[in-house]
User: Fold these one by one.
Assistant:
Number 1:
Amino acid sequence: MTKLLESQGLSLTYPNGALAFEDIDLSLDHPMFLAVIGPNGSGKTSLLRTILGLTRPTTGWIKVFGVDPVDEGEKIRRLAGYVPQRERLDYNIPVKVRDVILMGRMAKRAPPRRPSVGDFDAVLETATLLGLEALLDNRLSELSGGQQQRVLVARAITAGAELLLLDEPLAAADVESQSSILEVLRNMWKREGKSVIMVTHDLNPCHRYVDRVLLLKNRIVGFGEACDVMNEETLSQVYGTKITVVRHEDHLYAITGDTHG
């Protein structure tokens, strides 16, 4: 079985001395849909950047598809699609939805990057999966937050990457958009054999869709199937506040006054 990710003793300290994460030991099989859950400041984004080879760990080692991202980060980034946090992007650029999604296919090609009929067909197919087909000629800035998130996910998907890395893709999305995004990601894992690593601060919207959950608070607090890690003691440890877990229609939900921790 192909290994998606292996790490041992993986730690990262920021230049100011603050700890991002430490002692991350993982062995993940491909394909997998992994949700990395934790409050703000728990090292989630830094872990994604380390997987991509954008950040060099302080100690330990990591391999992604058997490749060391420290030495061969470009190779990892050719295999992966990345959706960064929404607030890091400029949504005022006057670009159409169609062109944003098309960027996913063009970005990994050598110049000259001329789209084909097949590329435009792939854009339409992906947009349809995410309910965006009627918005392809709209400007990105005209869309709601949830629609914009779906566009960014579509851009990553249309690249055909073996691994998708998504940083808080549900943060600005309404319930409908969250469900749409998660359903497409689950199908990529289950039907297409792709791997997805999704960072989020809230387990509730995604626990029914994902394969495994990694609870992170600068170190691994829990790892396993969602129902196994969704217990009050573990979640309270992660978020630093009292968490109540309730069952509704055969699903567990975490209840707290502050889901951001």
Number 2:
Amino acid sequence: MLEEMGKAARAASYQLATLSAPQKNAVLLTIAGLLEAESGAILAANELDLADARQNNMGAALLDRLTLTPERLKAIADDVRQVCSLADPVGQLIDGGQLNSGLRIERRRVPLGVVGVIYEARPNVTVDVATLCLKTGNAAILRGGKETFRTNSATVRVIQQALQQHSLPTAAVQAIENPDRELVNQLLKLDRYVDMLIPRGGAGLHKLCREQSTIPVITGGIGVCHLFVDESMDIDAALEVIVNAKKQRPSACNSLETLLVHQAIAPRFLPAFSARMAQENIPLHAEAQLLPQLKSGPASVVELADGDLDDEWLTLDLNVCLVDNLDHAVAHIRQHGTQHSDGILTRSIENAQRFVSQVDSAAVYVNASTRFTDGGQFGLGAEVAVSTQKLHARGPMGLEALTTWKWIAWGDDSLRA
């Protein structure tokens, strides 16, 4: 089955690569319209997925990721329209020039070809990936989690309906609808047809793809994100950023998981912090040396358990640690972070510059919430993933990350000496 899907996707990618920007935008606008016109079918499918998830005792964070509402579906459709307004990178001349040999060299952006994406309980990913792939002339093979089986199927049918309306092959966007995990292993070996693989899920999925895939893999999306409150920071301003980073959408990969507090500000900061966390219903997980100070306040506090600092909560829970100085904070982030999104809250430009230069994450913030690490927030439109690696793409992956380039040499019957 996957062999045939791969062949069809490869053939479709050749046709997509020839489309002009207006042609691709027309397809995307049709997709956006159909997402709204067929919202009843998509939401009904999503409700069936949600019913199964509740019956299987899915956690609140995953349930939130899985849930579609009329408002969320409308926002997804609007994101598709937003991508239409973005410049098409395909065909863009990156650089070039005239060589001494007489050749005129150009380096031009081209589609990757076929992109495979494996993801879990995120139905919006189906549309995000399809949108960005079609905009950049790529075909897509999607493998969503079994939790979103019905939602993904209904969404892909709508996308394929739009493709048909524009006389394009439905194989341009395909979904692996069989939940058998063996098909994931087969997809990992489909290097004859798939040019890049993007896993969006837990650490286990990323490890499997890194170890088993014969296709180049872009990893990311696991965010053990930190904020460091240094000794110079204004307490009230810090609390606002912390609450936003933790509470704006706790189930997102860019939400705050660990707060690092400079010991010099702790006596003034912790009482106000505890009061605000109690007000926001944010439970705290603190290291032993902080328990006496935090337990005297109104916030809910328990001692950190083994592994708490190395994994995502994806809930309102928040880790709190005391650090001696900026170097200690950086060392903590290097040990426990995932190179996703980390920031400093400071009024010292020197500390800000040191933190930015020393923290090796895909996105580093100064006096801002980590929740900004997002393709839309960064002006890229919808994103296909957030990469935490360093080759090809890093951070939110928008349109350019789904392209590569080719060298084109123009000669005049030129011969190499």
Number 3:
Amino acid sequence: MNAALWVILVLVVGAIALAVVGSSRASRNRAAASLADAKADARRVIERLGGQVLNLTGSDDASKQAMADASERYNAAASQIEQATSVRQAQLAKDSAVEGLYYVRAARQAMGMDPGPELETLSGQRSAGAVTEDRRVQIEGRDIEASPTPSGRTPNYYPGGRVAGRPVPAGWYSEPWWKTALVAGAWGVGSVLVFDALFSGMDGVGYSGAQFENGYGQGFDGGYNAGFDQGQSQDAGGWDNSGWDNSGGSDNSGWGSGASDNNSGWGDFGGSDFGGGDWGGGGDFGGGF
């Protein structure tokens, strides 16, 4: 009788072990299939961007700069997808490529061409809004302009998104003033003045001066105003295009620009602020606020 019980016990334990092994194998297979699907989806967008980068050449300063940014996103996305070991990393590589397609779209518009089909919305893009009027301000001796359309004075495009936690509206700018924060992962106090001067009172943007804090927890509105309740909602939230470690890129657009969503680092990914990832980045844009 005891022998029979031992046989039954061994069989039960064996059956449980087989079930566990089978379940684990099935789980690994599902994970591998999900990763393969995510990488294939990312490569589809990356190849589309690569075709545009190879076949489209800018004809003026604005379109040339936009295509240079598109090429940078293509190189970033191609590197990211080769090193991706998770579905999330593959998605972030795709996001880099989508951000690059926004730059291609901007270049086509600058050249008076059909911009092509609508693109997937980047995380944080809607909440950031878009520049709706021309603005020209002087900050610390520097003239900075923003415009909804490209020109010789505003040749630098940004597709919109969160950079170092702040919404940067889509539009054309005289200089890429957001890139320092994209790489450093933080805004300087001077940038508060840039935001306030460029965007305060502008319809369609996701910035409110009273929602921008300095390092002491005080709010800025029209320069310097009283502080605000830090529990107050600062934005609709979203992904920063800026980069793989800039949770909240286009980035936009880098993998470790710690953020971009910009957009995005491997130099300047962000943009698209792409949150997550484990790859460190770099890039030195110099200057900044």
Number 4:
Amino acid sequence: MELTISSISKRYNKEKYGLKDFSLTIENGILGLLGPNGAGKSTLLKIIATISRPTIGSIRLDGHDLLTDPNYIRKTLGYLPQEFGVYNNLNAFEFMYYIAAMKGVGGPGLKKRVESLLEGVNLIEAAKFPIGTYSGGMKQRVGIAQALLNDPKVLILDEPTVGLDPEERMRFRNLISDFAQHSIVILSSHIVSDIESIADKICIMKDGTLIAKGLQHEVIKTAEGKIFETVIDVALLPHFKLRHQIVNISHQKDGVRVRYISETTIGNSEIAIATLEDAYLFLTHNHI
């Protein structure tokens, strides 16, 4: 499958844009969408999900115009919005059957499908209790399960790991990795490590624009030679923070080890191997 986004903009008023001349082609696999708050990630995902319309531009799935025929994607879409609402009086089984009815999913295999998905998100033991008694992380897992219910060909997940503990994050990554072999998965998150561990391709946004895209190693390469580490006296740290973009700080016996971004080396600094987080910080802080 191929999703083609061509020069879309979302304009709210004369001065404010949610997206500006955004173009991207997405194929099967997992696309990790990164960007600071207000970058336009959720706006983009709502447009792909046909919940919102762009001011200008076009979006096509395998050549079909989704602005004139939104049902073409809706019947094969799985969507977990950033703000996911549930019916607290229903239990997980009841909620999944309700979503199935809304999506037109049925047949003799539905019961097994629901049980398999709830098992996949580790909710089968709690599935008969009202969702109102669930923790935030458990409700998020219900949201993940419902997004997968119709075996979608396009899966959109907006901040899906919010509220999940490390074990559940790992379970989520395994579930989505298997699913993405035959589908387009777009995963938006502000947690770089979640994207780094699962995404095939990376897209970085800022202020409604696309500032970087490519395979993960291609995006990381943009920060190569610009990431350094050095050890300084703890008393010098406030001054160092004022002058340099710091990525990480760790305290040790002989001072403070500082990882920072710079175009040139400073003092006795050593060049460090760049990571996706380094590249993300370098690109979003240095893009004008």
